[in-house]
Amino acid sequence: MQNLDWSNLSFKYRKTDAIIVSYYRDGEWSAPAVTKDFNFSFSAFAGVFHYANACFEGLKAFRGADGKLRMFRPDQNAKRIQDSGGYLDMATPSEEMFIEMCAMCVKENIDFVPPYGYGASLYIRPVLIGMNPQLGIASSKEVVFAVMCAPVGTYSGAASLSTGTAVLSRNYDRAAPNGTGHFKIAANYATSLHPYNLSHKLGYRELLYLDPAQKKYIDEFGSSNFLAIKGDTYVTPLSDSVLPSITNKSLQQAALDLGYKVEKRRVPVEELAEFDEVNACGTAVFITPIGSIDDKPTLESDTITKTYTFGDPSKVGPVSEKLYKYLRGIQDGTVEDTHNWCYFL
Ligand code: PLP
Ligand code: COI
After folding, report:
1. For residue 303, how far is its CA from the centre of ligand 2 (angstroms)?
2. What is the CATH number of the domain that holds 102?
3. Quick check: 146 and 95 in contact, CB under 8 A?
4. Tens digit of pLDDT for each residue in 85-111?
5. N or C: which end of the chain has fewer CB within 10 A?
6. Phi-psi sector, 205: left (phi>0), alpha (psi -120 to 50), beta
7. Cα 159 from chain centroid?
8. Could you tell me how far CA 284 lies from the centroid of its own chain?
9. Are residues 148 and 172 in the same domain?
10. Residue nearest to atom 5 of ligand 2 (CA)
11. How many Cα atoms occupy the beta-carbon half-sphere of 328 within 13 Å?
12. Which domain holds residue 116?
């Protein structure tokens, strides 16, 4: 096992031992190969460099309290990359190939899978990249599918379940109406870098996007879904422009398992005033409590029109904490995995 400061990993690039690659050329995928060479060699004309012909995934592997290695719901990520790559009209790996390459990646980097008990995990990042030379706008015919990983802690680097602040994005959209917000394509992240940087410079942990058509309803954060607790109900937005989060889906089931109600529906911005707890949820952020959300006319403006606070803004809410412990327990092997979400390695 690597000698790392497992309790202070945060979410940053750290070189591991190997990545796994497969190339799609002439209608077929090459056998997945382990390589220690992390550099690709593509033509400068590769579609990815000009037209963002790329999509990706994110999932985690955990070393359980029982010493066993588990990946969390890799079948769901396999399906989503098929949707994202399918939208880009690129070849995509089968579910079997996707899971096999993720498993290979974990095994080849086994010394980087954090020990149980530090709140850390191995983040697995599969990417699909269009690599053949082209000049005009076109989908890529030749593709590389690569799976890489890094040991991670919390996304922000702050302690697990510490609360952060967010700001509404009134003058930037992450996705267009009828656009690509529901796919995990690289282009979505490129277009949101500017407002993301701006909100961070202002000291906010998260930027909360509204529905791009009417700006009346909550969509999601830049890197995660939105979930709120209102009394005994878990509320999360129903929207065509948010990414279908596997964490959110799992937490909705977890909420039902724990006896809460679940509502997936449009969430008007003003309803923020009625929520007891708010969280960002996703693979990287897991469950990140949001203590308050500022509403500003524009991100650049000095005026704060309104600040919404949730419970004690400096503390994680009790329901969010229960959900955190339940889902993390399933991933760690300390809570029974009644839905068979874990894939054992
Ligand atoms: N929303 C966005 C924009 C994301 O990038 C992510 C991360 O994958 C999520 C939501 C959360 O999805 P998941 O829980 O499947 O990681
Ligand atoms: C994830 O949660 O897996 C993500 O991809 C979010 C972000 C790091 C892009």
Report:
1. 30
2. 3.30.470.10
3. no
4. 999 999 999 999 999 999 999 999 999
5. N
6. alpha
7. 18
8. 5
9. no
10. 58
11. 21
12. 6-152
